[in-house]
Amino acid sequence: MTGPAIISIPPASAPCAGAESCEQLVHADGWFAPVDLHHLQDVMRVGTQITFPRLREAALKGMTDALKDLAAWRTNWVLAGVEHVSQVPGLQLDGESACSHLWRSAVYNYALAQLAETHRDISATGAGDERAEMKATSAEDYRRDGLHAVRDLLAIVPSQDPDVDAPPARTRIDVELI
User: Most buried residue, 3, 55, 81, 137, by CB count within 10 Å?
Assistant: First the structure.
């Protein structure tokens, strides 16, 4: 007898609510915003089978990858007098800097790429191998989305002349296969 699939969706976890001492906040370098593991778990639909210590390690790896890619970009903004990523001039989305959203997107996607690669099903069956291949594909998708967020941040550059709006830097290349 087959019936509808049962999907277990964990209840939303309690956010840190801005408390800097919350154990579920992962701090970056102070210029970039910390990552709230509750928010990461809820937004990216990370199931309860991933423990917070494992999620923290993945978030740290995600931050490391993003920080490495954004080091020179951050330095340019610091030299321009910007003290925090949220102060980078530009678009505001839902009351928050677009750069803050992109930073979070990069870290979240890099973290999930790490989890998708390392959290394989333990199975000796062919079905387990198929699931592992599907997860490898999703890891590549997460990594791509994280890279897109990084490239979108890199396109936001400090202006040399405040009176002139320079065209945004082109940080992606569109390729059409023939």
Answer: 55
